[in-house]
Automatic annotation (TrEMBL):
The keyword Phosphoprotein applies. The modification Phosphohistidine is found at residue 55. InterPro entries: HPT_dom_sf (IPR036641), Sig_transdc_His_kin_Hpt_dom (IPR008207). It comes from Imtechella halotolerans K1. GO terms for biological process: phosphorelay signal transduction system. PROSITE patterns: HPT. Keywords: Phosphoprotein. This is HPt domain-containing protein. Pfam families: Hpt. Residues 16-114 form the HPt domain. One of its GO terms (molecular function) is protein kinase activity. Gene3D superfamilies: HPT domain.
Length: 114
């Protein structure tokens, strides 16, 4: 399986390629900012902000079929909500950041985006 899948986007867009591309472009624009917010919340050890940032990222990675990244972000969200283990949050964040970077790079190549 690839690092991402547009199956859910295709279903949502009803095959409208322009609409699908706009969803992908918004993802590419917003996700780095959202991940930065999550990184800052983790650095501040602020569980409320960790939860909020992860909650915002979660549906976007799900929409792009990033199964492992979705699992990691879901775990971060749950740990944030329950004032969970910061070491686990840091570990999950590092893995999700790496997976997202790979997926975003592949999306840019596949869609010839800069």
């Amino acid at each position: 399986m690839g690092v991402y899948s547009i199956q859910k986007i295709d279903e949502l867009s009803g095959g409208d390629a322009d609409f699908a591309l706009s969803i992908i472009q918004v993802f590419l624009e917003e996700t780095p900012q959202d991940m930065y917010s999550l990184e800052q919340a983790i650095a501040a050890e602020n569980h409320t902000l960790i939860y909020q940032a992860a909650h915002k990222i979660k549906p976007n990675v799900d929409l792009l079929g990033m199964v492992r990244t979705h699992q990691l972000i879901l775990g971060i969200e749950q740990q944030g909500r329950s004032n969970g283990d910061l070491q686990q949050i840091r570990s999950d964040f590092a893995e999700s950041k790496e997976l997202l970077a790979k997926a975003m790079e592949q999306i840019k190549v596949d869609y010839k985006l800069d």
